[in-house]
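hi!! sorry for the late reply, been swamped w classes. u asked for the two structures so here they r. pasted raw, havent cleaned anything up. first the sequence of the first protein and right below it the tokens
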Amino acid sequence: MGKLREKFWIIQSRRAIRKIVNRCVRCRRFAAKSCEVEAAPLPKNRVLDAAVFQITGVDLAGPLFLADGSKVWIVLFTCAVYRAVHLELVAACSTEAFILALSKFISRRGRPTTIYSDNGTNFVGTDNIFKKLDWKKIESTASVQKIQWIMNPPSSPWWGGFWERLVRSVKDLLKRMLGKSRVNLEQLSTCICEVESVINARPLTYVTEDNDDLIPLTPSIFMQSQTRAEFPELREVDQGALITEYKAMQILRRELRERFRKEYLGLLVQRGNEKEGQ
């Protein structure tokens, strides 16, 4: 339009030019907006009303070099629902070392029903060992349910996004804590516990500056039923008080899970739509 006005003055030139441009097939093709794809629903195991670590993802990070020159790896267990983490150190990437780490995890966090992992040889070896067990006899005699092990398709790391992101968080925190210093196994174990505590205390939802708002949801809230560790003397608590306390705890857990579904899962869907629109 600027070039045309150097020689001509066209009445309602802007409208006329826009009309011509809109009729141009090539211009419309390059100016067209990309089709917006509707975000896929969240995986079923990510939205279950499950216990912490009932649905678990596992991965290895490392190696880390100790002061004596030996190497260790970090085994990361993460809850697919509440995003809690549990970290263990292993001295090798073998099946035997991972089974020991898995045993410690189950002893401290409970037995998962489903485990997700990639196709690492240690994970495949553990799954093969579990498959060889007589689970019918185990379930009938020990009341222990078989763990469902789900592995990602080969060469598809994006399938494990919900644990890969936490592996990155663990690495970033360790870099900030240790820098270039060389530590022994005991010092590194302490650092790993501190990293685990920091990650489990991170807010899952938006933190506002309003003092009247509820505290933000964190993984640690779902990992513990109460903040105090003391247990009352049984002779000081009657049956009615125990029943009342139990009902109060059930109501609190139900309210926390309702908040989790509204605030955190709703936020995940919103983030997915924003990424699709970019």
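now the second protein. again sequence first, tokens right under
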Amino acid sequence: MKNIKPTRFLIIIFSALLVFAAGSFARPVTEKGDAVYRMGHIIGSGILGHAGLYDRYPGGGLDPDDLYSHFTYESLNRPGVGPENFGKFHDETFFWGVRTLRELDYSSRREIVKTARSQFGCKFGIFFSAYKKPASKPWVADGSFRCDGLVEYCYEVALGHSWMPGKNGGIVKNDDWWTLNPIRQRHDMHKRTASEEEALIPHTVQILTPSQDGEVITGEYELEAFTSDGTEGSGITRIEFWLGEPDDTPLERPGVLIGNPDEHDSVIGDRYYCTLLPTLDDDGEHTIYAKAFDQAGNVKISEGVDVVIDTLAMFTGIWIGKYSSWFDVPRWQPPGDYRMTIECWFYALNAEGGYDEVQADSFFFTTPTGILYTSDSEKLNLGFTKDEFETIFTEGAYEVTGSVTIDEKVYEIAETMQRDSSVAFLEIPLLTSTSPPNGSTVSPGSVDVTLRWRSIPGAEDYYVDLGSEGPPFVVYDYPGTSYTFQNVPIPFKCSIASWSVYISTEVKYTLPEDGPYPKFKLTLSSICWDEYYLKTPCPEE
């Protein structure tokens, strides 16, 4: 045998170390319960290596590509059996790699980790029976393990074999203190191929809601995805929903994370949810996709679903009033005429999930008979005779369209209202007995005013507004048919001071199942007007 020159010997040793160290520069691919190996620390036996179990990636927003976001379970000289950091395990000496057994499925992987955790607090033991001595009961620190003994024992329990030394299944068959060591154990396990490592990503992740491209999102919207890690993986722990531009690719321009990720462990597959609260800044075309994280930190990205976000919502109200009587002669109109005010309120969804009012440029009101009314503000004041009103405002759908400019961007909006003549125009006349009597002369100051009105069958509540030149007096949801306003300020003028007193039911609306904002259905919308006025003496010059 030829003598090896010292320089060649050093080259061989250095080359071997490079082989051992090569793994430390690439992120190892793992599944829950895998065995992991590196060179050991103990003098004289360090070459035999150190073994541990890959525990899990906990999620919580930690970077899955950072090994320090992952955890192992090990038996160390100090502190014994317990959780450790995978990044530390990987970087502390020379990392030797990840190993597994081909026959493991999800349930056995879960059992491996569960068994390791049940030995928490056991001491580190290296000699004879102490190398693999489980606790008498879970979480009772009267056992001891060598590093490879802990790995061996957890696999034996998961595979259903006896753990007794010298007579067991597990990884190294019939192992004992002499025959078991990390190198032997690693040798008897399976090293995944590159294609097998690629297959470790979650098997399925699919956006369920929205279900197809082209859906228009106008406000708060619940996203839903399904994901599965198959029967052999670690199980899913986290789903993130992302909002990107139409030409985004998730790896190059991942967009913006939507809301809070849904984090919960699923055995094989489950549904995950998230709430999207878009704002005006999000209006436009987007792609929504999901990122699934399994319990070993492996990630898969779903196919995207293209959507259009249009957050500008419109509230429309129609107030229709029948003037039953007038006392202010200069403004007198024939009894029975109708005067109608159509107002539109435009709102945009804000970042807090509420609505901010925005100013309309214009809106258009079209009746079922095809008559178009145009306004360059947010209000239309219209007057009709009774016959004209009944001819124009028939039952059917009323279209309201308009536009709003926000930050130099024009939004087109549309809404539909429905008239039901059986409930839409109810008279709610004031009874004549009011206090003080109509037309009485009072001194400047204030007065108590009592109003009584006729009850309307089926009306749930009333909205009473007593207006004057002072602050209005308003009663919301008052259940009775009379109300006394106290200390009402009297307008001080040199002529007749009149108050318009009207009573109406509230405009009711229902929330549709297919939209996040109210679409008004007018159930009780009439306003019955009655003029109530008080005469005041003229002030002395």
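hope this helps!! also noticed smth abt the second:
Residues 481 and 530 are 16 Å apart (CA to CA).
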